[in-house]
Amino acid sequence: MSSQDIPEEKHLPSEQGDAHHGAVTVADDPFADPGLPVHRPRIQDIDERAAKRSERTVAFLFTLSMLATIAFIASFVILPVDKIVYIFPIGKVSALNFALGVSLGAALFCIGAGAVHWARTLMSDVEVAAERHPIAASPEVKAQVMQDFADGASESAIGRRPLIRNTMFGALALLPLSAVVILRDLGPLPEDKLRKTIWARGKMLINQNTMEPLRPEDIVVGSLTFAMPEGLEEDAHDFQVQIAKAALMIVRIQPENIKDKKELEWSHDGIVAYSKICTHVGCPISLYEQQSHHVLCPCHQSTFDLSDGARVIFGPAGHALPQLRIGVNDEGFLEALGDFEEPVGPSFWERG
């Protein structure tokens, strides 16, 4: 047999290593089950006095959470909105916002800290390994889960430690009151304010450009005039709120071209007055096509026919524009004969 026929000898490293190849050991299996560490009891597991101290600590944290929630509510009621204080190193801040943030943060932190301390010191910390099982559990597994849950509830000591249980329930019950109090900041309930404007019988129509009362001869066919109620001043603190509902647009249409009978009755010699506020999302309408008598909202292109009760003929608006009944007073000025019969602007919950 030739030297070429002799297979090459393979040298395997020994456990003690080889001087030429260096010390090599058999690689450990990286997927081997390392097993659970040996359980070591905590001081609370063997000393009831330590367990009582932990119990009092948890109860103290839950009690702090309740006090912080009360402080949140008190701050909201007592502190003025415009009070500014200097707090190092933050600088100048709103006293109300700072108090609300600190108190609510403390309430949430204390609940979390109390729950964590409870779990780490008093609840069972024995680790249990469970083999994977099919999604559909067998009756035996379901029964075991329920038993484990009952055992966990028992080991949590929630039944034997009423101090923790009661303070936890108190903290969790009080905390949602913070959200309820914050809702108060949305302002008073609107009641029927969304259904009414400041238009009333006898209020003259004031031209928003000239700030002068309007006469019928001031309105010509093909023109679009914007008006507001008499007595509404532009420098009033609530001007924007009032004009947002009371803004009016006035056009003159030949009476024979008015299709809606009610519209004709509520007009004066073909002069019709409609709300300027689009019934989609409340944008001001400003585009008028005199030949078709259509007005267009520039925001989302809702189109209304002013010769046919201002009904919607295109776009997302859901209601026709409300009409204001008008007439002429003894001095020859256009005046309102009442308020709008329907709510002005977009739909709201009670209206539909």
> How many β strands by DSSP?
13
Which value, in Å, is the CA radius of gyration?
39 Å
Backbone structural class = alpha+beta
The assembly state of the depicted protein chains is single chain
- What is the string of SSEs from the N terminus onward? HHEEHHHHEEHEHEEEEEEEE
- N- and C-termini, Cα separation: 104 Å
Shape: elongated
* Overall pLDDT: 86
The poorly predicted ranges are 1-26
Q: What percent of the residues sit in helical stretches (DSSP H or I)?
A: 25-40%
Sheet with the most strands?
5 strands, antiparallel
Tally of helical segments: 8
Note the beta-strand portion: 5-15%
| Strand line-up in the sheet with most strands | 3-4-5-6-11
How would you sum up this structure, described in words?
The strands form 4 sheets. This protein has a 5-stranded antiparallel beta sheet with strand order 3-4-5-6-11. A 4-stranded antiparallel beta sheet has the order 7-8-9-10, with no helix packed on it. A hairpin with a 4-residue loop joins strand 7 and strand 8. Helix 2 runs antiparallel to helix 3 and helix 2 runs parallel beside helix 5. It has 8 helices and 13 strands. The protein is elongated. The protein has 352 residues and is of the alpha+beta class.
